[in-house]
Amino acid sequence: MIGDFDTILNLVGTLDDTPGDNTPRVRFRKYLSTGMTELGSVRDAVHTCVVQSGPQYARALQDLVNYLGTLIGFEVEYGRYAGVQGKVGHDGLWRSGQNVVVVEVKTTDAYAIKTDTLPNYINSLKSDGRIKPDDRVIGLYVYAKSDPQVKQLEHAIIAEKRTQELRVGSVDAVLSLAELIREEIITHDEAQAILWPSGVWIDGTVGLLRRMAAASDGTYVTPLTTIPAGPPPAVTVTVPGVPVATPTTPEAPDQRQHFLIPCADVPDETARENIAKLVGKESIWAFGQKTPNRSRIKPGDQVAFYQGPVGVVATAEVATVPEDKPMPGVVNDPVKYHWTFQLTKTRLFLDEPIAIDAAMRANLDAFVGRDPGKVWAWFVFATRLITEHDFALLTGKPA
Q1: What H or E segment, with its residue span, contains residue 51?
Q2: What are the phi and psi torsion angles at 47 (to 5°)?
Q3: Are 130 and 147 in contact (CB under 8 A)?
Q4: Residue 288, Cβ neighbours under 10 Å: how many?
Q5: pLDDT at residue 224 above 60?
Q6: Proportion of the chain above pLDDT 90, given as a percent
Q7: Average pLDDT, whole number, for the chain?
Q8: For a pLDDT cut of 70, what percent of the chain falls above it?
Q9: Do domains 2-179 and 258-395 have the same CATH topology?
Q10: Rounded to whole angstroms, how far apart are CA atoms 289 and 232?
Q11: How far is it, in rounded angstroms, from Cα 363 to Cα 372?
Q12: Domain ranges for the chain
């Protein structure tokens, strides 16, 4: 996917704020709306922009976030890539009726984001009439990679009592909202209820949960939030149209099994840091009480670790069964993730991740009969059993 997306970026030209009807930014945004209609492809493009560096990828990611706003159901005004004196520097303005979201995308830790950045943009937009007095407005900071500044931003928003006007989310969470809408799991109004801070009434949130439960008829791990570093929490509901892959030839309990374990960034610790520490240094892993397949894992099984959204970056063999043995000071949140087990034969390739791109997905048993370009987030949202064939492809090494 990286090569394909690089080709597109090279064809459209250098993304900048040059005005005109046939500029690189216009061509790129037109490509998004007409040539990237499958959310699986959008997720692949987001992955490319997150793992690659440079202004071209940062600006493409900004446009991708705004494009996701249109897929969630907003009317979107794309913002400028670079600030200019006398111009409002917001990255995106999303509108649905009187609901307005002003977006700031953080793609690098090269500069700090301050809590007053979006409020200042909002005030300027109100002054020039683009936000009306009766509009309901929030500012949304969207970050591509977790770093200490994200946690500092969260603490500052709380300390300054701005939780009703400012929100923070990962690009993966925004992408997941679009996927939930595409799969008709939630509506546009329900997506807005998730974006806006909760009001006095609980009915909207309860109604959303009740709707999701009522729609269920197949297992799906809801991607409403970023998966914490360490093993992902299992919030399992069943929904139509979103299958969970099962091995085409499941191993018998006494045979070696193969598992894919996802791990994503959180503000306190990146997935890379967590995998490097637990797998590479400590030779352990930890699960939560409700982690799917926890009770199935046994010594001799092989596990692959997926660093969201980068790719598979480590493998290991299970040495002991998971036991209720918290490891404070080692495991991130040992109260929540207290089922620990030992690993052996660990192999890390953090700098050479194996991406689960469309070409890879087309060859996986888990995607037999499924379009590899469509929504595929279900595959990496929970610990899952995979075939030996898929394990070999995902790890670049025969099992």
Answers
A1: helix 39-51
A2: -55, -45
A3: no
A4: 20
A5: no
A6: 55
A7: 84
A8: 84
A9: no
A10: 11
A11: 9
A12: 2-179, 258-395
Q: Could you tell me the two tokens for 339?
A: 């089922």
* DSSP secondary structure letters along 200-219: S--HHHHHHHHHHHHT-SSE
CATH number of 2-179: 3.40.91.70
Residues in the chain, total: 399
State the average pLDDT over residues 345-373.
93
State how far the Cα of 43 lies from the Cα of 375, in Å rounded to an integer.
8
- Looking at domain 258-395, which of 3.40.1190.10, 1.10.1790.10, 3.30.830.10, 3.10.590.10 is its CATH number? 3.10.590.10
| Tens-place pLDDT, residues 23-48 | 999 999 999 999 898 899 999 999 89
Q: State both tokens at 358.
A: 């469309």
Count of CB atoms situated within 10 Å of the CB of 257:
24
* Backbone dihedral region for residue 115 (phi beyond 0: left; psi -120 to 50: alpha; all else: beta): alpha
Residues 388, 394, 398, 399, CA torsion sign: negative
Spatial separation of the C-alpha atoms in residues 352 and 374, rounded to whole Å: 25
Question: How many CA atoms within 13 Å lie on the side-chain side of 146?
Answer: 26
The predicted-structure confidence for 60-115, as pLDDT tens digits, reads as follows: 999 999 999 999 999 999 999 987 776 778 899 999 999 999 999 988 766 677 88
Indicate if the pLDDT at residue 216 is higher than 80: no
Q: Using the 8-state DSSP alphabet, how is residue 292 labeled?
A: T
Rounded-to-integer distance, Cα 387 and Cα 392, Å: 9
Question: Is pLDDT above 50 for 236?
Answer: no
Helices (H) and strands (E) in the chain, counts: 12, 14
pLDDT given at position 235: 33
- Render 103-140 in DSSP notation, one character per residue: EEEE--SSSPPPTTHHHHHHHHHHHTTSS-TT-EEEEE
CA distance 184 to 212: 10
Residues 6+ apart with CB under 8 A from 130: 93
Torsion angle defined by CA atoms of residues 274, 168, 44 and 79, in that order, rounded to the nearest 10 degrees: -140
Residue 383 CA, distance from chain mean position: 16
Tokens 């989310």 label which residue?
169
